[in-house]
Each structure stands twice: as C-alpha cells, then as structure tokens.
Amino acid sequence: MAMTQNRTASKSPPRIGSSDAPAGARAQRAAERRDAILAAALDEFAAQGFAAARLDDVAKRAGVAKGTIYLYFADKETLFQELIRTQLSPVVGGVIHASHADLPIRLFAEQLTEVFVRDVLGTRRKDVIRLMITEGQRFPKLAEFYYREVIARVMEAVRALLRRAYERGELKDDALVRHPQLLAAPGIMSIVWSGLFERFEPLDVRSLMRAHFEILFGKENAP
Question: Model pTM?
Fold first, then answer.
C-alpha cells in the first residue's frame, strides 16, 4: 500500500501549458491548409471562372479532400468572399489610412498610382478584381459583398479626401467629390486591358494614370 502511495506521489504534476505545443502545431497546420485552399481556389477561379469552377478541382489543387474545404468554408461563394477579404483588405486599409492623413491631392494621387501598380496589378489581386468584373453580375450576393467590403469603404474615404481638397481650392469644381469613381477609371481599364490585350500591346499603367490625373487636376497638380 505504501509503495502504491509512493508511486502515486512520485508522478510529476501536470505542467501549465504542457499541451500548448501540440495545440499550436495543430493550429498552424489548420492555417496552412486554409491558406492552401484559398490559393488553390484563386488559381481555379482564375483558370475556369467562378461559375465553372468546381470545389473538387479546388481540393485537388490544394492537396486535400473535398470535405476538408467544408471545415473552413460553407460553400463556393463563402470561399470567394474570403478571397476578396484576404486579398483586398490590406489595400483597402492602406487607401483609407492615406486618406485620413489629409494629404494634398497630388501626393495622394502619386501614392494611389504606386499602390495600384505594385500591390494590385503586380499581384494576384488583379485576378480577384477581374473575376468580379466578369462574373459579378451573375452572382449578386458576391457583388454586394464586394461592394460593401471594398467599393463602399474606399469611396467613402476618397470622397472625404476630395471634399477637403475642394474646400482648400485644390479642385476647380466638385465633380470629383460627386463622382470619386473617376479616380479608379484607369485602374479598372488597365485590369481589363491586361487580361485581354496585354500580349498585343503592353500598357504603361503608371504613364496612363499620370495622364489621367493630369486631365483631372491639371498639369500643376498632376503627379
């Protein structure tokens, strides 16, 4: 009996955090699977279009069973919504941050040009935007999600910046305050162009955007 008590007493007490490493490893593997699914989904959507893409093929690209996808995403639309969020939220946040800095409109236009060329056109983000342009009309819930998470947030911030620029006399009228979408026009056009005509006639997007801002703001305020 005493020996049994000694053996019991000699057991090491459980250490706080002793299961952290396995739990952390599981969380890391889960995050890696989730990222792999998102990357595979973007590849499949870009190759086949959102409507034609199948989750079976997304699973094959990601190297997981189809059922694994449903552990992370309810359906194909939810998967694409998360692509929108993860791909574009950093850019949206950057534009909003720059607009809050109350920059002169010329400097903001310069930053907008660089952010678009580097962080959108130079990355897979352009594929997400292109998918919305080509298929958003067929999937109104996705279009609504994209508008709410991307368009509305950017337009609100940019409109406020343009209003302040107008009040400071940097703009000759309030046309841009009423229609801030005009700032995005060359960016949207360049995404369409890159998907359809880039192989025939490459487009200098920086030059295009600078020419556009020169038209909007005049040469003195053009970046």
Answer: 0.84
